[in-house]
């Protein structure tokens, strides 16, 4: 019988999901991208991946393990050095200067006097120590020195009819060089996140802002599906779930018969949320103590954590309401109400935010398994009103999880 499946080869065009799995001590991470325009003849693949994909068809998956230094450059001591803090040229955000902080990542272009580095250089570097006017800067890749696992899943494969030129994509760099690894903790101690004015907001009048209902989603439909799928990996049928900062959507899977209690700022929004069995109107920025009875099997906090002015107190309250073995799930993206997000959230790199939240979760008492998952460059629905301005890219999603022992 003739094989009618189109097979991956040198003359193929493909769409592929690439997933990078890595660990930071007991924390586990999975970072995904959708390789949307893969030209097999022209593009550059991670080591051994091209050969392993040969002959594979749509829906098939391959997996590769990489030793430290094999997928990304090995760690070099020559990329770690000290310098005067006056060589840091931080921008202004929200009327406040960005200052060097221990454990934080910054674009290398903010540091003057580094050979081969220019003001527009966005490659990250981490400040690992700071004493007086002397700081230690680590310019190694955030994943340097770690073993990595790459999983590639073919979504579509088609034969190329013609080739008229175009961009060359380096898929190892696309996957690894835009943030993964920045979630990792600093070995020497906690990162200094909550510095001066970090939790300040341009608009602190929440009662006025949330008085009128907004019966709309805050990310595109594909991003919501991705967040729901990430949550589903930690949920079981029949769980009691507390949905903090709830609205018209809870981004929960609808096939698990969950018993969901919503807590948010607008009752009409929550009344229009079909996932909620009941809801409570409460402002966590006025009182971070959650006014409901536990225990719950899971707590979710979706696309709103950046609005909290005392996130640690809220997470401590959530921890107290979880049953032993319960999980908190926090979803974040790059869309928010500009005047309501705390200033420090805007300063953090997209991939630093999960690290910030994981550090807070540990401080709040979560000592079980924890980590995060992300996906970028997925397809935005064509009927989405932001399709053209986003070039069809779905909103990025990060889902942070932490278990209570």
- What are the segments in which pLDDT stays under 50 over at least 5 consecutive residues? none
Beta strand % = 25-35%
Distance between the termini: 55 Å
Q: What would the principal axes of the Cα set say about the shape?
A: globular
Strand tally is 17
Strand line-up of the largest beta sheet: 3-10-1-2-16-17-15-14-11-12-13
Put simply, the count of helices is 8
Question: What attributes does this structure have?
Answer:
globular, 15% helix, 8 helices, alpha/beta, 17 strands, 30% strand, eleven-stranded mixed β-sheet, 405 residues
SSE diagram, text form:
Elements: E1 12-24, E2 27-39, H1 49-53, E3 61-66, E4 80-84, E5 92-93, E6 96-97, E7 105-107, E8 124-131, E9 134-138, E10 148-159, H2 171-176, H3 206-209, H4 221-232, E11 240-246, E12 259-264, H5 267-271, E13 276-281, E14 296-302, H6 311-321, E15 322-332, H7 343-347, H8 352-363, E16 370-376, E17 397-403
Parallel strand pairs: 2-16, 11-12, 11-14, 12-13, 14-15
Antiparallel strand pairs: 1-2, 1-10, 3-10, 4-9, 5-6, 7-8, 8-9, 15-17, 16-17
Would you kindly provide a written description of the structure presented here, covering whatever features stand out?
With 405 residues, this protein is of the alpha/beta class. 15% of the residues lie in helices and 30% in strands. It contains eight helices and 17 strands. The strands form three sheets. An eleven-stranded mixed β-sheet has the order 3-10-1-2-16-17-15-14-11-12-13, sandwiched between helices. The longest helix is centred in the middle third of the chain and has 12 residues, at 221-232. It is globular. The N and C termini lie far apart (55 Å).
């Amino acid at each position: 019988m003739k094989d009618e499946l189109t097979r991956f080869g040198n003359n193929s065009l493909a769409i592929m999901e690439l997933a990078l799995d890595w660990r930071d001590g007991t924390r586990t991470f999975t970072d995904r991208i959708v390789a949307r325009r893969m030209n097999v003849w022209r593009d550059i693949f991670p080591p051994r991946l091209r050969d392993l994909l040969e002959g594979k068809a749509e829906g098939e998956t391959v997996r590769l393990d990489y030793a430290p230094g094999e997928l990304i450059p090995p760690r070099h001591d020559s990329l770690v050095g000290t310098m005067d803090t006056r060589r840091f040229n931080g921008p202004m955000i929200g009327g406040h200067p960005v200052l060097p902080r221990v454990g934080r990542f910054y674009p290398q272009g903010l540091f003057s006097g580094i050979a081969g580095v220019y003001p527009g250089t966005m490659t990250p570097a981490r400040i690992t120590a700071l004493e007086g006017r002397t700081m230690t800067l680590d310019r190694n890749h955030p994943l340097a020195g770690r073993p990595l696992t790459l999983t590639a899943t073919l979504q579509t494969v088609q034969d190329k009819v013609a080739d008229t030129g175009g961009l060359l994509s380096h898929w190892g760099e696309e996957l690894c060089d835009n943030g993964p690894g920045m979630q990792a903790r600093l070995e020497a101690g906690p990162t200094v996140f909550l510095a001066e004015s970090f939790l300040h907001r341009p608009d602190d009048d929440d009662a006025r802002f949330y008085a009128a209902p907004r019966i709309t989603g805050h990310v595109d439909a594909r991003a919501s599906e991705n967040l729901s799928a990430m949550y589903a990996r930690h949920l079981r049928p029949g769980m009691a779930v507390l949905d903090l900062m709830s609205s018209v959507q809870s981004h929960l899977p609808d096939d698990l018969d969950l018993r969901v209690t919503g807590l948010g700022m607008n009752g009409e929004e929550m009344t229009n949320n079909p996932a909620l069995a009941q809801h409570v109107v409460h402002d966590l920025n006025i009182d971070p103590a959650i006014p409901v009875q536990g225990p719950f099997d899971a707590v979710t906090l979706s696309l709103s954590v950046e609005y909290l002015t005392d996130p640690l107190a809220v997470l401590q309250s959530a921890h107290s309401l979880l049953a032993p073995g319960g999980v908190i799930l926090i979803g974040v993206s790059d869309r928010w109400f500009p005047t309501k997000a705390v200033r420090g959230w805007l300063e953090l790199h997209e991939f630093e935010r999960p690290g910030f939240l994981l550090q807070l979760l540990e401080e709040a008492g979560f000592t079980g398994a924890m980590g995060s998952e992300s996906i970028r460059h997925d397809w935005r629905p064509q009927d989405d009103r932001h399709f053209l301005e986003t070039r069809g890219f779905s909103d990025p999603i990060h889902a942070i999880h932490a278990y209570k022992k």
